[in-house]
Amino acid sequence: MIFDRELISNGNPMEKIVGFSRAVRVGPFISVGGTAPVGADGKTVGVGDVGAQTRQCIEIIKQALEQAGSGLHDVVRTRVILTNIDDWKAAIDVRKEYFVDVRPVDTIMAVDRFVNPEWLVELEADAIIGGWGGAG
Fold first, then answer.
1. 134 has pLDDT over 70
2. Record's Pfam families (predicted)?
3. Has residue 135 been placed in a domain?
4. Which CATH number do you get for residue 36?
5. In a domain, 27, yes or no
6. How many domains is the chain partitioned into structurally?
7. What's the pLDDT tens digit per position in 21-73?
């Protein structure tokens, strides 16, 4: 079976500079890369507030999935990446609001820092479009 490949952009100028896409859809499979808490103005959303930053990341992921013909309901895996592992509960409380019924698998991990020191969290997601092959 041969699948088409679609690159999903959210207009971030770094996509062309660094050579990445916000998301890539190959057939029914969608991967959304590390998503930072950045607003449309390019500034960090929720400086100092891991919950607000987590919400912004998920909203960006949601937009990317919708561009790819999917949505949060198709998510099968999330990764929550924090700079302070002690913030896990605040991040997961927000994640839970979006995924309580979908219940994708999840990984929570910590890193030393992100490119922007204001970022406390990044999220990644993988989705598979349900009903692919006619309903796509």
1. no
2. Ribonuc_L-PSP
3. no
4. 3.30.1330.40
5. yes
6. 1
7. 889 999 999 999 999 999 988 899 999 999 999 999 999 999 999 999 999 99
